Amino acid sequence: MLPAYIKIHDAIKKDIDEGVWLIGDRLPSERDLADHFEVSRMTLRQAVTLLVEEGILERRVGSGTYVASHRVRDKMRGTTSFTEIVHSQGKTPSSKLISYQRQLASDTEIKELQLEPSDYVIRMERIRYADNIPLVFEVASIPEKFIKDMKRDEITEHFFKTLVSHGFEIGKSRQTIYAKTASERVASYLSVSRGHAILALTQVSYFSNGNPFEYVRSQYVGDRFEFYLENN
To answer: pLDDT (tens digit, 9 = 90+) per residue, 97-145?
Structure first.
């Protein structure tokens, strides 16, 4: 027969898996949970502690116990695709294409991608997912001159791999990160409320010869993704 705290552990985990409590939700107090499960607070605390150790819950001093974010983590180490990042976490990446257009380069795209005013770009908007959870809304601009011989799905689904298969050598990237809040449109794409905390990232990726080939503006859900650095 399973100990009482294991049964409570399994019940809370089941509720989280089924969406009764969502990422970032605050759980009821220990007293309320103990009353709900008809156990002592000590037994309840054993169950919660086990869930914390497993990374399912997190305790915040002076605030309470919350459903942990299960963030996808990216070590900022250069030019890496979203697909590679998500695969490295043992999760399944996917994406939904919102728009795909051929347009004259904007002033910002001309500057970032070192283009002429008469140059065209392919500009696409996507929602990127990990295990079907929306993580990022992304706008990517790619100079048309580099991708004329590529099929649309090669560009939208496995762009970096496609570049390599066409003989391009990928080099460095330049990234800028800043904080902002989600607009109503972005919030609807990412299944969060308007004003939710966002990690905004702009990235320019370069070929090994120094030519920029992609300019990306990404908006990550702040409690589902994190960037980190390691210094020697």
So the answer is: 999 999 999 999 999 999 999 999 999 999 999 878 888 999 999 999 9
Alpha helices in 144-216 (DSSP H): 152-157, 159-165, 184-190
The residues, any chain, with a CB within 8 Å of residue 111's CB and separated by 6 or more, are: none
What single-letter amino acid sits at 140? Answer: A
**Structure tokens, 67:** 């459903």
| pLDDT tens per residue across span 10-57 | 999 888 878 888 877 899 999 999 999 999 999 999 999 988 877 678
The amino acid sitting at 204 is V
Beta bridge partners of 183: none
DSSP E strands in 77-167: the ranges are: 93-104, 120-130, 133-143
More confident site: 59 or 169: 169
Whether pTM > 0.85 for this model: the answer is: no
Largest CA distance in the chain: 74
Which residues, at least 6 apart from 14, have a Cβ–Cβ distance to it below 8 Å?
A: none
- Could you tell me the CA-to-CA distances from 211 to 74, 76, 119, 206 in Å, in that order? 25, 21, 15, 5
First to last CA, the chain: 51
Pick the CATH number of 4-67 from 1.20.1050.10, 1.10.3810.10, 3.10.490.10, 1.10.10.10: 1.10.10.10
